[in-house]
Structures are given as C-alpha cells and as structure tokens.
Amino acid sequence: MTDAAQPRPDETYSYLGPAGTFTEAALKQVHEAAGKHWRSVNNVGEALADVVDGRSTAAMIAIENSVDGGVSATQDALATVAGLRIIGEYLVPVNFVLVARPGTRLDEVRVVNAHPVAYAQSRGWLERELPDHAHLPATSNVQAAASLFENGLADAAVAPPGIVDHLDVEVLAESIGDNPNAMTRFVLVSRSRSIPARTGADKTSVIVELPDDEPGSLLAMLEQFSTRGVNMSLLQSRPIGDEMGRYRFVIDLDGHVEDERVYDSLLGLRRFSPKVIFLGSYARADRREVEYHSKYDDEIFIEARDWLRGILSGEPEED
Ligand SMILES: O=C(O)C(=O)Cc1ccccc1
C-alpha cells in the first residue's frame, strides 16, 4: 500500500475484531466513526497502543459487564498507560451461542474456544451441558469461532448470535449465557485533551491510590464524594502489582467535572491521595439525568466561594 492509500490516523478507529464482535457493535453506535477506517486488533493493549502511538484517533474497549464485573485488563491498562481519556460510553446487550464446524454433534464437543469474559458468562451452561469440557481461550468472541477453521484445536466456540452472518458455522445451542439480560459497557478512549461538553447525564471516571499505612484513608476517599452528594456507580479495587496488599481504586462518579460538586470532590481527592488519574467526563450511555440533592447545586458552591472571596477582599458582610 502506498502512503497515499494509508488510512489517516485521525480517521481511524481501533476495536477488538474481527468484524462481528460486540466491540464492533459498540463502535457502530459512534456517529463520528461512521464511514471511517476501522482497524481490527487482537487485544485491549494493542487498541490502546494504536491511540498512544497515533495510529488511531480512538479505540473502543470493553470495560465492565453486568455478569462478570470489571474487565481487569482494561482497568489495569487505563491505570498504567499515560495520556488516555474516555470520551464516550456505550452499552451492548450480550448473548451467546455455541457453534461448531458443520456436522459436529454436541456430544462430540470436548474443547470449547471462548473469550475469557464470554466463558465466564456462559460457565453455568457449559458446566451443566458439557461437564468434562476444557476451555481454550480466544482473543475475541468472533476469533473463537474463526479459529475452528484455522486450527483443529477446539470442537466448538462461544460466539455472538450474529456469527452466522460471518462464518459457515452450525449453531449447537442458543442463549447459553447465564444471564439473558447481560450487558457489556464499552468506552471510547482517545488522546484528546478536550473534555466532552456537560450534558446533565454524565459520568466521571478516576483511578485513585491511597496513602500507605494510613488507617481510615479508604473512608477519607469515600467522604470526598459523600460530603458533596456525589454518587458512585462503580468502585473497584485492583492490585497495583508492585507488592502484596497495595491497591488502586477504579471509580465512576455520577456527574461531570464541570459540576461544582464533582469538581470539589476531585480537589478533595487530590489533596490527600498520592495519585489521582483523571480518566474523563463523558455522556452516560443510558442518557439518564444525574439525580442529586439540591443542596449540592452549582449555585450553593458558587455562593459559598463568593462569600469567602468577599471577606478576603474586604467587602462588607451581608446579614
Ligand atoms: O467484543 C467482543 O465480542 C469480545 O470478544 C469482547 C467481549 C467479551 C465478552 C463480552 C463482551 C465483549
């Protein structure tokens, strides 16, 4: 390919492929990505490296699912790869089928290819229906099925229902997910420093470390939010990894950094935490307006600040 034919990085979006993954379904929800070049990658690290190294303008990555919890590879990457910001959130309902090469019978299946997160969400069905199966991990839900034709290592694969549009597979069982209402939450990550505009239905994501050996520091962290009426929709601890017993906290807050109560909470966090990573403020996927008590309205914070500024600048105090 000549240079002129190379897709422009500012028009390239990376996602966990190949085509047909849930990650691709999430990227389809991004209006700005329509008609642009979509680069299929094999893992979250590769997707984020594309963004950091400037090959892509943004990457879509799975961050949490309703059955199996936080995607640790994503949370750890966001904590350690510098310069990334979340600019959007997307929800995709997830449901799985068991597929095989045509002609395979269910009672012949021994080895099942599956993305680890998909496996965790289908474990109940697999343990019940295929009690002696072995799990072979795959890089994605679609790759799990594609591998059936690339090597003979597995007899069946856990895949999205839409797989039949992409590959000549036979569906051995439908709806094998343990929870029919399972959802996966995806985030669009970029290097952009400009924060998406406040919509009133926003989230703010941060990663926080606590001071070492300070009793009560976890409570002190939580108090930053509770004293300002800020709700958390995610609180997850992840090992920092340098030594036993050290954790960082992945936190999603209801609200935008431009909301005074969120802004003030982040100032509070920054004052006592040795490390706060601001991952971004962005519109919630469900567009649900953030609810909070009116005593934490922007005006209340602004009035208090103006009052003290007035005192410092020598203005006469009102009764
Ligand atoms: O995007 C996909 O299809 C993936 O393979 C990652 C994944 C795994 C399980 C649930 C949602 C996304």
From TrEMBL:
Q: Where is this site: Essential for prephenate dehydratase activity?
A: 184
Q: Which organism is it from?
A: Agromyces luteolus
* Protein name (database record): Prephenate dehydratase
Q: Which CDD domains match?
A: ACT_CM-PDT (cd04905), PBP2_Aa-PDT_like (cd13632)
**Per the record, what are the reactions this protein catalyses?**
prephenate + H(+) = 3-phenylpyruvate + CO2 + H2O
One GO BP: L-phenylalanine biosynthetic process
Instruction: Indicate whether S-adenosyl-L-methionine appears among the record's keywords.
Output: no
Which keywords appear in this protein's UniProt record, sorted alphabetically?
Amino-acid biosynthesis, Aromatic amino acid biosynthesis, Lyase, Phenylalanine biosynthesis
Kindly give the PROSITE patterns that the UniProt entry links to this protein.
ACT, PREPHENATE_DEHYDR_3
Signal peptide, first to last residue: none
Domain of life of the organism in this record? Bacteria
Coiled coil residues, start to end: none
NCBIfam families (alphabetical): PRK11898.1
Domain Prephenate dehydratase: residue ranges: 12-191
- Pathway named in the protein's UniProt entry: Amino-acid biosynthesis; L-phenylalanine biosynthesis; phenylpyruvate from prephenate: step 1/1
Q: Which gene encodes it?
A: pheA
